[in-house]
Amino acid sequence: MTVAGSAPKIPASSPCGGKATPHYGHVVWILLENVGYSVTDSTSAPYLHSLASSCGLATQDYAVSHPSLPNYVALTSGSTQGITDDGEPSAHPLSVPSIFSELSGNWTSLVESMPSKCDHVTSGEYAARHNPAVYYQGLSATCARNDVPLTLPLDLTKAFTFIVPNVCNDMHSCPVATGDQWLRRIVPLIVASSQYQSRSLALFITFDENDAQSSNRVPTWVIAPSVPRGVRVGVRYSNYSLLRTSESLLHVPLLGLARGAASMVGPFHL
């Protein structure tokens, strides 16, 4: 029974399609690896297919570079910063603004299989190149507090949460089905959170790049209470579009090439 004056609980099976006026103060990203747009036709990704049916999908989104690291830096700073490889943070110390620095500590990175907080060295199933916060020099104090190993329950209290699967669960080193099953466990936890249930959280799931197509086309799923069920948007987007959209929702200045990128806010009813 719904208590008088309260909003009905948003079910994990149908998290989108609400009519309430959106007011998003929390943004969550989950980045997958390398497979790209072909995953939308893969029989190994039934959960991702269900998200496309129940929420929103950007069908013309494109990563800006190869390999992984330039895309992660572009997504978080509005530029690849001239990076063309997957070097460790020691090879690419960045003294530039990022979405992390814009939020003055109101962010967190939840990094699966990272051995210790703000770890700058790749080891085991942890890839530092997939954890962009460790590259920004100005974050040294907050990184030690806010860039932490992924544990449950999920901490989604910050304005911006970057969830980083390990190199198996992000589909980099394991099959698509493995990543799809991981998402089936994690996404319902996000939908069940108090932030999503209060209709203040928007979740974006995308890929860093597409290793199979020269176009670098990637799918981006948009999951938020106000997103129309099954909406597919064919606007041409890029890494910079996700940054622009997130910065707009969080009311911080647009960085670099995000200023000229297409926004997802209007087309997805955010």
Annotation keywords:
270 residues, alpha/beta, Alkaline Phosphatase, subunit A, 9-stranded mixed β-sheet, 7 helices, globular, disordered N terminus
Notes on the structure:
- With 270 residues, the protein is of the alpha/beta class.
- It has a single domain (26-260), classed as 3-Layer(aba) Sandwich (Alkaline Phosphatase, subunit A), CATH 3.40.720.
- The protein is 23% helix and 17% strand.
- Strands 1, 2, 3, 4, 5, 6, 7, 8 and 9 form a nine-stranded mixed beta sheet that branches.
- The longest helix is centred in the last third of the chain and has 16 residues, at 176-191.
- The radius of gyration is 17 Å and the shape is globular.
- The protein starts with 25 loop residues before the first strand and ends in a 20-residue tail after the last helix.
- Residues 1-5 have low confidence and may be disordered.
Show the helix and strand layout:
Blueprint: E1 26-32, H1 46-54, E2 56-62, H2 68-77, H3 99-102, E3 107-111, H4 140-146, E4 147-149, E5 160-164, H5 176-191, H6 194-197, E6 201-207, E7 217-223, E8 231-233, E9 237-238, H7 239-250
Parallel strand pairs: 1-5, 1-6, 2-8, 2-9, 3-4, 3-5
Antiparallel strand pairs: 2-7, 6-7
Helix pairs in contact: 2-7
Query: How far is the first residue's CA from the last residue's CA?
Result: 28 Å
Mean pLDDT figure: 95
* Secondary structural class: alpha/beta
| Anisotropy-based shape | globular
CATH topology: Alkaline Phosphatase, subunit A
Q: Taking Cα atoms only, what radius of gyration do you get, to the nearest Å?
A: 17 Å
Number of helices: 7
Strand content: 15-25%
Highest-level CATH class: Alpha Beta
How many extended strands?
9
Give the second-level CATH assignment, the architecture: 3-Layer(aba) Sandwich
At the fourth level of CATH, the homologous superfamily is Alkaline Phosphatase, subunit A
- What level of helicity do the residues show? 10-25%
* Largest pleated sheet: 9 strands, mixed
How many domains? The number is 1
